[in-house]
Amino acid sequence: MDSTPEVEFYDGVLCAGFVNAHSHLELAYLKGAIAEGEGFAAFAESIGRVRGLYTEAQRLDAIAEADRAMWAEGVDAVGDIVNGATSFATKAASKIIYRNFVEVFGLRECNLDRQRALLDYPDTSLTPHSIYSVADAPFREVCGEGKAPLSIHFEESPDEAKLYEGGGALHEWYKRVGFECDFLHYGTPARRIVECVPKGRSLLLVHNCAISSLDIETIMEHFVADVYWVLCPRSNDYISRIKPRSVELLRSSGYNINICIGTDSLASNHSLSMVEELKMFGDIPLEELLRWATINGARALGIDDRYGSIEVGKHSGIVNIKGVDFSTFALRPDAYAQRVL
């Protein structure tokens, strides 16, 4: 009897299951509902207009379908942003591990009771939404309590920095609707981060489209805990036609930079495919990109003892990436991922 173990061969590249470091599963029902390329302020206003047009059943069906699609394409874990309880039933039944960040936002509201009620769900903690959408007191309160990582939208648009200078589309929007910002004295988005977030607290900074070398230096010189720079390039292209040029600033900064990959939401993306995100970085070696999409994301979510790499004792899935040009070891335009295990 032949005792040789059965060997399966795959045409492609095998890697550990992906870790999507930033998504909004609960917004899956908004796929195709918001126009592309109109800029960040217009996108934010559009979400407010259209989100009430869908039934609870439509929302739940879209959430479940997005969860199934991510699993089939090899996603093991997600750093997911939540504003309500809609997605938790799907998550409880999912094969995907979700690390939930409850967003705190509001330039007028300071009562966090609604957000704190969501902390009864597992693997859930509070985080400020961004450096432009939260009043000073609740921003400081959330940043200063607990030890869980924070996940903060950061420099998604040049208008965030312009707001601190008294100009730009965000400034004009806020002026039009009567919002007042009590945090502009920090001077820049990066200064607000380092003056409000304890240096020993782990942090995910998400988007980073408009960061400068000074922003990177300001943040990296402050924190002793790990900082993870999460890039969501297709979302940025969808909203503002911004390309991921900031990645070269991060890679050449001289600091030990941890880059991760997120998909953001289906409100600002055509799919939640990690491979499609990686295709946006065509000049970067595939081996490096796969670290961003696997072990770096697992470390950011605090699950690298179980996920993010194929090792004895871990629970990572195995993904086959088809459509790799082996002469350059790069993703072809037709590349896609399938879960093997």
Describe what this molecule looks like in 3D.
It is a single chain. By secondary structure, the chain is an alpha/beta fold. The chain has 14 helices and 11 strands. It has helices at 40-50, 56-72, 88-93, 113-117, 136-144, 158-164, 168-177, 189-196, 213-222, 233-240, 246-251, 274-278, 286-293, 295-300, and strands spanning 13-16, 18-23, 75-82, 97-104, 124-128, 150-154, 203-207, 227-231, 258-261, 318-325, 330-339. Helix 3 links the parallel strand 3 and strand 4 (97-104). The longest helix has 17 residues, at 56-72.
The total count of strands amounts to 11
Spans of 5+ residues with little confidence (pLDDT < 50)? Answer: none
Approximate helicity band:
25-40%
Structural class: alpha/beta
Instruction: Give a quick account of the main beta sheet: strands, pairing sense, barrel closure.
Output: 4 strands, parallel
How far apart the termini lie comes to 28 Å
Secondary-structure blueprint:
Blueprint (H helix, E strand, L loop, with lengths): L12 E4 L1 E6 L16 H11 L5 H17 L2 E8 L5 H6 L3 E8 L8 H5 L6 E5 L7 H9 L5 E5 L3 H7 L3 H10 L11 H8 L6 E5 L5 H10 L4 E5 L1 H8 L5 H6 L6 E4 L12 H5 L7 H8 L1 H6 L17 E8 L4 E10 L2
Parallel strand pairs: 2-3, 3-4, 4-5, 6-7, 7-8, 8-9
Antiparallel strand pairs: 1-10, 10-11
Helix pairs in contact: 6-7, 8-9
